[in-house]
Design a protein that fits this description.
Blueprint (H helix, E strand, L loop, with lengths): L1 H18 L2 H12 L7 H21 L9 H8 L1 H11 L3 H21 L10 H6 L1
Length: 131
């Protein structure tokens, strides 16, 4: 039964990311992430990069295929505290939100970057210190 729900959420999320205005996606992300320790979409992307998903994040900004990310990876990298905060802000369960984010993030980030809303990848603290 959970598989059917996951498939439904996955299809809705992918359609949503493709059809929704990138500026609105950014505004929604900023609204909900602003209620968490992540603070913003850029903060979420930094957390993903710092947690070892930099290859996936890079693919969302560059040409070619977007590398997928799995809900279990997001849970491990983002952490329970931030996921609980985000679930509370959105009114979804953590498990539902993880499935939704895994499907939505690659396309949403790609669309926001292509439309100039996200100019470039956020610099990780280590990279920023080296610059």
């Amino acid at each position: 039964m959970f598989f059917i729900f996951d498939s439904l959420v996955s299809g809705v999320a992918k359609g949503f990311a493709r059809s929704f205005d990138p500026a609105t996606l950014h505004d929604l992300g900023t609204k909900y992430l602003g209620e968490t320790e992540l603070g913003s979409i850029e903060g979420l992307l930094r957390r993903l990069q710092d947690g070892g998903l930099d290859g996936e994040v890079d693919s969302w900004f560059g040409p070619g295929e977007n590398r997928p990310v799995m809900p279990v990876q997001l849970r491990a990298v983002i952490g329970e505290r931030a996921m609980t905060q985000l679930a509370k802000a959105t009114g979804m369960s953590v498990d539902q939100l993880l499935v939704y984010m895994a499907d939505l993030l690659p396309t949403a980030i790609e669309r926001m970057h292509a439309d100039g809303i996200l100019e470039s990848q956020p610099a990780t603290p280590d990279a920023a210190a080296l610059a």
